[in-house]
Amino acid sequence: MSIGVSEVADQSVNNIDSNSYKDWSNFGFDSHYPLVSRSKKMKEIFSLIKKISKSNATVLIQGETGTGKELIAGLIQFISPRANKPFVKVNCAALPENLLESELFGHEKGAFTGAFQAHAGKFEQAHQGTIFLDEIGDMHLTTQSKILRVLQDREFSKVGSSKNTKVDVRIIAATNKDLEKAIEDSDFRADLYYRINVVNIHLPPLRERIDDIPLIAEFFRRKLAQELRKPVGNFSEETKEILMHHRWPGNIRELRNIIERAVLIVEEGQMITPRDLSLSGKDYFAAGGPDRRQPSQALFYANSLNLAEIEKGAIEKALELNHFIQKDAAKLLGVSSRVLNYKISQYNITHPSWRKNSN
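Above: the chain sequence. Below: its structure as tokens.
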């Protein structure tokens, strides 16, 4: 059973409510989490997916690690006429070249040492369905030539066989590499690139989808809380601020892991606060980034580049976010309590709650 992309995409531009989340869950998480977006770029991608899903066109998905390339491939399969047919995934970087060929095309009994029986490869298993070639940029040139043959002639031969096997399969490939540069470096075949690049989808990194971060984080919070059967409060404003300004080098995969950890450690019914996140002190304050969008959005803002002023501002903000509990602020800053106490004295930082501890 499938659901219209436009229907779900339209829901995604509104705030996530319990009803829409429940509807999405009924159709499977992998199919719908990529649709949680307000991004203009992502809406264009969804529109393109709608147009190409009914065809058999080969698709190349490019983007950084963790941007959801496999999930987009699954979405294309999910709404295509091949939805009820096999969807076979192959990680081209996970196997050495000699094993990858056998994995893709299969082998006959006795084709090599240890081949005690015939084996159907991934292409044969994907007959009438879709095969997803992940990390195709890491594929050896020899195997690339055989993939090219499948694309051109819709047939292949198993390892150890001279017989050709016809196959009806749609190919979706993905990579985090610059294939044009790989062609220049003679690491990727130009003719294969042009064959797989019939439709190109480039997924933007999460740092270019700032407005999507709260939506996706909320989606993960609800999903994981539901899976763990654990009532969890919303994100505090400070937590949202951190999530919005972190650089997310691991993209959506990193965001999911951080939200999962937060849901696991936060007390039932409690709001998720900065201390529930797994970001180190260094990452926390990098969340404003050297290229902050607006000064008002930063975690703290210094009027100069004076190192002492910046350090003092960071300490004051860490204390504020941790209700002036010094050991928690020290943990957030990534320093020892002793170092923080020294810095507090150095910058003459005080707070009324500390008076009871004074001599």
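The mean pLDDT is 79.
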